[in-house]
Specification:
The chain has about 400 residues and is α/β, with parallel strands linked by helices. The protein has twelve helices and 13 strands. Helix content is about 45%, strand content about 20%.
């Protein structure tokens, strides 16, 4: 219920604390899951104090319980363990402090953790976070590699040494963070985001050595999985050994079985590349030589042809044929002309022999009437009619005598 206050009528701190306590007392008991980060068991004390932390967020809350409650799980619960606590919120008015009073503590077993991870895996898969088409291609030769790993860890040493052995010029931007425990998730997420936003980082490697299922839980955290899925820079997961497979392996653009394997997959080997270049150079040299040899053989074969060795040979041969055909044509033409001339002479002689002029030269005459028609019979003319007589040397007129 709201309380009416003002600057002139404020509530004392004790009253505010008492009101908060009354409101919290009305809250019921709840089941809470978290990871134990601090555990205090004082000898002879009847109360055990512990701190419960959310591994995915920077939030902690104090928990108290009677010794007999904790003794029931003391053999299987220690700092770093994940537990489920049935508790009721309490308000300690003198200090204004909120805590949880535990009535029961249950350790979270490996089977239960794996079942929860499987459910989370299916949920994220339905969102498409593990789809192959989302995977980004790694650069062939990264100039700057972002590395997220534990401080002075074997994973860091394996990645750096193997990468620099393969390509001495490669550079690293290293972020040392906790890789297990309650602080791992937020710091790994922050490191990944910083490297993704940094200029010049071509690829990001998240690496750590092997461990138990509980040790690798931070790398299956939903917050980390979504942060990696949102990265613009390709991310390589190098968590644990071959059997280990946290959810980070599924969302990453490339999974490496070990940190050493990550270095081999991200950085090319300078010796192998030199050998590959040499092999390609030799192959190109052989191809060029084979091409030149083939062209030389083709050129030699072409030069060996008679038409190339003696270019005028074909022309000369054709010239002789042309000369022979020309001479043949001339002979044929002369023969035809001679024959035509002979025929013409013979025809001319016949024409001359049969022409009226030749007949007139032999003493004959042609009588023509005034209209020019030749007289062929005596009955065609009348007495006294004047006719024109044509002879070989000219013509004259005659008169028909009755």
């Amino acid at each position: 219920m709201a309380v009416n206050t003002s600057a002139e009528a404020p509530l004392p701190v004790g009253e505010v604390s008492r009101l908060i306590g009354r409101w919290i007392d009305r809250l019921g008991a709840v089941w809470v899951e978290g990871q134990i980060t601090q555990l205090s068991r004082r000898p002879g004390a009847g109360v055990v104090f512990l701190t419960l932390r959310d591994p995915s967020h920077d939030i902690s809350v104090g928990v108290t319980c009677y010794r007999q409650v904790f003794d029931a799980v003391a053999d299987v619960v220690s700092e770093g363990a994940r537990v489920v606590v049935h508790c009721k919120p309490e308000w300690y008015a003198p200090r204004g402090q909120l805590s949880l009073r535990a009535a029961e503590i249950r350790p979270v077993g490996v089977g239960e953790l794996l079942a929860r991870l499987e459910q989370l895996k299916k949920s994220l898969a339905r969102e498409g976070l593990f789809a192959p088409e989302r995977k980004k291609r790694l650069p062939f030769l990264p100039q700057l590699i972002g590395l997220v790993c534990g401080r002075a860890s074997a994973a860091e040493r394996d990645v750096l040494e193997n990468a620099r052995h393969r390509w001495p010029a490669v550079r690293f931007e290293v972020r040392n963070v906790p890789v297990q425990g309650v602080h791992a998730v937020p710091q790994v997420v922050q490191a990944v985001k910083e490297l993704d936003a940094a200029d010049g980082v071509d690829v990001i490697i998240v690496a750590r050595g092997g461990g138990s299922v509980e040790d690798l839980l931070p790398f299956s955290d939903e917050q980390l999985v979504r942060a990696v899925a949102a990265c613009r820079t390709p991310v390589v997961s190098a968590i644990g050994h071959e059997p280990d497979s946290p959810l980070l392996d599924l969302v990453a653009d490339l999974r490496a079985s070990t940190p050493t394997d990550a270095a081999k997959k991200v950085v090319p080997d300078v010796g192998e590349e030199f050998e590959r270049v040499r092999m390609l150079s030799d192959r190109a040299d052989r191809c060029v030589r084979a091409l030149l040899d083939r062209e030389e053989r083709g050129l030699a074969h072409a030069l060996a042809r008679p038409s190339i060795q003696d270019p005028h040979r074909m022309v000369d041969a054709r010239a002789e044929e042309v000369t022979a055909l020309l001479e043949r044509g001339r002979r044929s033409l002369r023969h035809q002309l001679d024959r035509a001339e002979s025929e013409l002479t013979h025809t001319h002689a016949r024409v001359v022999a049969l022409s009226p002029a030749a007949t007139l030269k032999r003493g004959y005459a042609v009588l023509q009437r005034e209209d020019g028609h030749a007289v062929r019979a005596p009955g065609e003319v009348e007495a006294g009619e004047v006719l024109r007589a044509r002879v070989s040397e000219g013509e004259f007129t005659v008169t028909v005598d009755a």
